[in-house]
Design a protein that fits this description.
Elements: H1 10-23, H2 28-33, H3 35-38, H4 46-72, H5 84-100, H6 130-141, H7 146-149, E1 152-154, H8 158-163, H9 169-178, E2 186-193, E3 196-203, E4 217-222, H10 229-247, H11 254-258, E5 262-263, H12 276-290, H13 312-321
Helix pairs in contact: 4-5, 6-12
Main location: nucleus
Domain Myb-like: 1-57
Biased composition (Basic and acidic residues): 59-72
Length: 329
């Protein structure tokens, strides 16, 4: 017989709600490591928190649905139409996605699937987690020619999440130092915040901050620009970059590092609430293939990153070529 699961206490449930409100759904490691909540969970794992949160959201959705039916449909049909249970299950699943991936820092902004919108079985099936994104990047990286890879390096998506916890900052910065990012033209760094994937690109960090030929700058690619995440992310990202310069004992004027250009190109946007991870992978592929040897932001860089940077047909074709077996179960 399998190991019997322990029942959740009211104190644990309250701590889970408070942790999600503070850090967002999906940040189970961060919640468990937060001293505010750590003592409330009795040897719970990331999986325990994830499963409990899923059950809580499903229960809340069922209760909301039942309440709506009582008000709007007092006379219930004894024999529901064929397949109605499947349609209801699909609707609950979509509503659950809205609850789980809700932006808790700005609750009114959510990404809702358009009714009747076409689903591609590859792109829109589900969101990618950090392990999957890292595995796909490693696989994608092997496909790039060596001369391209010499100008680039990439960082693990989990590092930014771990950096957000004070006790992990020095460890994460030491890992980044081993990547020797100041000797590379571009540093590719996918990050996830509020259940949404972004792509950070650090450009020419090894160059002089006053260089006009190779301008050090930060690019943030966001497939959900209407949510205006960049304004909330920018202060934390700038602090992260400043910590990197300090940890590497760079001699650059810190006031100039704080003023480093932070650019948010208008890139093609996601078509549903699960596509952001796949778009980040496609952004990486196209950027590595297209980035110039040098650039100046006074010339309007990044000039090739626009709303029509690529077609969705190209994105769909790319997703179909991904090797889904490269992710360990």
């Amino acid at each position: 017989m399998g190991k019997q699961k322990r029942k959740w206490t009211n104190n644990e449930v309250e701590a889970l709600h408070a942790g999600v409100k503070k850090h967002g759904a999906g940040k189970w490691t961060l919640i468990l490591s937060d001293s505010q909540f750590a003592s409330s969970f009795d040897n719970r794992s990331n999986v325990d928190l994830k499963d409990k949160w899923r059950n809580l959201t499903r229960r809340a959705i069922r209760e909301q649905s039942n309440n709506r039916e009582k008000v709007t449909n007092p006379r219930r049909c004894k024999h529901p139409p064929p397949h109605s249970s499947k349609k209801r299950r699909r609707k609950v699943d979509e509503e659950e996605e809205l609850v789980v991936f809700k932006d808790y820092h700005k609750p009114r902004i959510t990404t809702r699937l358009r009714r009747g919108a076409h689903r591609n079985t590859v792109n829109q099936a589900r969101k990618l987690d950090s392990k999957e994104v890292q595995s796909y990047i490693e696989n994608l990286w092997r496909s790039f020619p060596e001369d391209k890879k010499n100008s680039f390096t990439h960082l693990d998506p989990l590092w930014y999440t771990w950096y957000s916890c004070d006790s992990n900052k020095q460890k994460v910065l030491s890992w980044i130092k081993k990547k020797d990012i100041f000797s590379r033209k571009y540093v590719i760094f996918p990050i996830v915040q509020w259940g949404h994937w972004f792509l950070l690109i650090f450009c020419h960090f090894g160059e002089s901050l006053g260089s006009e030929l190779r301008t050090p700058c930060i690019l943030l690619l966001d497939s959900l620009a209407k949510a205006d995440h960049s304004k909330r992310l920018e202060p934390a990202i700038r602090k992260f970059v400043l910590d990197i310069y300090s940890y590497f004992e760079r001699t650059e004027d810190k006031s100039l590092v704080r003023k480093m250009p932070f650019l948010v190109p208008k890139v093609p946007q996601q078509r549903d609430n699960a596509e952001c991870g796949f778009l980040v992978l496609y952004y990486i592929k196209l950027f590595v293939e297209s980035a110039p040897e040098s650039f100046s932001i006074t010339d309007g860089y990044p000039y090739f990153m626009k709303k029509d940077w690529f077609s969705y047909q190209g994105l769909d074709s790319f997703c179909k070529t991904l090797d889904f077996t490269c992710v360990d179960p």
